[in-house]
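Table 4 source record.
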Amino acid sequence: MRLLIVEDEKRLAVSLAKGLRAEGFAVDVVHDGLEGLHRAGEGVYDLVVLDIMLPGMNGYRVCAALRAAGHDVPILMLTAKDGEYDEAEGLDTGADDYLTKPFSYVVLVARVKALLRRRGSSGASPVLRIGRLTVDTATRRVFRDETEVALTAKEFAVLEQLAVRAGEVVGKPEILEHVWDFAYDGDPNIIEVYISALRRKLGAAAIQTVRGAGYRLVAS
């Protein structure tokens, strides 16, 4: 899952991004409303964490503009303001949830996961079955037959990208885009490390290498 944080308090934004990455999400961060609208409008994000008091364009206007353009990405609004009117205004512009600062990081993560589950339940099933493999994208658990396979957050994120397109070839750039954040400029071959780890845990035949193209998850 790829998230966008639009927050002008840089220390808070960095802290949130660090924590969410530890949960296995790819996270991009911008600090003003106009840039946030531009990035969110690209349609590559699974959820947007959006502050209200932003330079350039406030969060209400960003949210309203995204909805007017037809983007249905879940939006979790953050604000230092408090009161029923502010919450109603945020939700009226199309936000899916609302969190008032200061907030517990645990609560924020729970809200993020709830919004992602809600979106998943309205579309494709959150449980993917590929042969003997079961990938539950809501609980982030993986089973081979009846045995649970313990994966790290990043291993699960890589597997998820392959599982949602099981049988298809998924290229390294696509995996990097969704599992690592926008600013990642390290060695793209890091993906091979995670593919090797997944093969050790799931079986070597589960993930095929298609030379020059990427990887394919198959029933095994």
